[in-house]
Write a structure and sequence with these properties.
The protein folds into four domains: about 40-55 and about 290-365, Beta Barrel (conserved putative lor/sdh protein from methanococcus maripaludis s2 fold); about 55-65 and about 210-285, Elongation Factor Tu (Ef-tu), domain 3 (Beta Barrel), CATH 2.40.30.170; about 70-95 and about 180-210, OB fold (Dihydrolipoamide Acetyltransferase, E2P), CATH 2.40.50.100; about 100-175, Helix Hairpins, CATH 1.10.287. Mean pLDDT is about 85; it is low at about 30-35. A hairpin with a 6-residue loop joins strand 13 (about 230-235) and strand 14. Helix 2 (about 100-140) runs antiparallel to helix 3 (about 145-175). It is built from four helices and 23 strands. The protein has helices at about 1-35, 100-140, 145-175, 225-230; strands at about 40-45, 50, 55-65, 70, 75-80, 90, 95-100, 180, 185-190, 195-200, 205-210, 215-220, 230-235, 245-250, 260-265, 280-285, 290-295, 310-315, 320-325, 325-330, 335-340, 345, 360-365. The protein has a six-stranded antiparallel β-barrel with strand order 3-12-15-14-13-16. Helices cover about 30% and strands about 35% of the residues. The two termini are about 85 Å apart. The longest helix is centred in the N-terminal third of the chain and has 37 residues, at about 100-140. The protein has about 375 residues and is of the alpha+beta class.
């Protein structure tokens, strides 16, 4: 009887221990399963991007030379040679074209002959004047004769002076028979050819100076103020990665009657050889002191009686609530000036159901 009672007690203890072990095992499984199946909330995020409050405006323009000159001969004549072609780079003092020199040489020889004749006349008149002075000093001549000799000598001197100026002019005309480039540039047009008779000053060769280039664009009247007071940059379609600082040099006093835009010319002081004349360019205008702001969906803003905040998501899926500075509100957006860094990911939907202790999973993202 005693032995039976002992076995019953021992059996009850074994059953109790088994039940306890089973309960502990099940509890551990449930905890592990709960840890493994802990849900992460999917969220939609937006990347924060700061930019000027007033958006930049871009316009298509053309690269042109600041100075383009129609060069011509300073004397009339028949074209002997044209020495340049369109597109050719010319240096200072380089010959561009020449005239036939036959007539100009004859004019120069005639002027030299007149100078020689005037020199002889002056020598004779000077000698006569000297003799008249000598005779008058001895009392063998009258004052009238001396005055006559002086007048003849003065006339001879004036004639020689006129002849010398004529020689200089004809020599200059002879030098003008060669048309020279007065600056470094590129030939954009040839308006004459060999054998053509040209008048003095007639356009012959068009040369654009390549040292000074500018971008020419049409500006709408609403952006004239920004063009005058803002900042400008120029990029080329052929070199989109290169940007050049531009400065407004000239703007038309009145709008074009057809397009209602104002023609503006922007100087490019840093333009290099990549900036070729005639290239298509993009001019970008921006306000000089515009504040940088970021635009985000209004649904991303979290505020429950405290400062407006945003939920920022890191790479590990953790969220943090950060207060931000709100500048203004739009119908669907909020505009902030600070509080989160450039490129930060902020939750845009369901922020009222988030908790800083939660983990989230980014399912999509937007860029603003």
């Amino acid at each position: 009887m005693l032995l039976r009672s002992f076995f019953q007690s021992y059996f009850k203890v074994l059953v109790a221990m088994s039940i306890a072990a089973l309960a502990l095992t099940l509890a551990g499984c449930d905890k592990s399963t709960a840890e493994k199946s802990e849900p992460t909330r999917p969220v939609l995020v937006a990347n924060v991007h700061y930019e000027a409050e007033s958006p930049e405006r871009s316009f298509v323009g053309t690269i042109r030379p600041r100075i383009e000159t129609d060069m011509g001969f300073r004397v009339a004549g028949k074209v002997e040679k044209r020495l340049v072609e369109v597109g050719q780079i010319v240096e200072v003092g380089q010959p561009l074209a020449t005239l036939d020199r036959v007539d100009l040489k004859l004019q120069a020889e005639q002027a030299q002959a007149e100078r020689s004749a005037a020199t002889g006349v002056l020598a004779q008149a000077g000698a006569a004047e000297a003799r008249a002075k000598e005779l008058r000093g001895k009392g063998w001549s009258t004052d009238a004769q001396l005055d006559q000799a002086k007048a003849a000598a003065d006339e001879a001197r004036a004639r020689l002076n006129r002849a010398e100026r004529s020689v200089e002019l004809t020599n200059n005309s002879l030098s003008y028979a060669t048309l020279l480039a007065d600056s470094r540039g590129v030939v954009t047009a040839t308006l004459i050819d060999a054998g053509q008779v040209v008048a003095a000053g007639q356009p012959a060769i068009r040369v654009a100076r390549i040292a000074e280039k500018e971008a020419v664009v049409a500006i709408p009247e609403t952006l004239i103020g920004r063009a005058k007071n803002g900042t400008a940059q120029v990029s080329l379609w052929s070199e989109p990665g290169s940007k050049y600082t531009a400065t407004l040099r000239e703007i038309a006093p009145q709008a074009d009657p057809a397009t209602r835009t104002y023609l503006a010319k922007f100087s490019l002081p840093d333009a290099d050889d990549k900036v070729a004349l005639g290239m298509t360019a993009t001019l970008t205008l921006a306000d000089r002191d515009s504040e940088r702001v970021a635009r985000l969906p209004l649904s991303a803003l979290f505020s429950q009686g405290t400062a407006p905040s945003l939920y920022v998501v890191d790479d590990a899926g953790k969220v943090a609530l950060k207060p931000v500075t709100v500048k203004s509100y739009d119908a669907d957006d909020v505009i902030i000036t600070g509080g989160v860094e450039e490129g930060a990911k902020v939750v845009t939907l369901g922020v009222q159901k988030l908790d800083p202790a939660m983990r989230v999973r980014v399912v999509s993202s937007l860029s603003f």
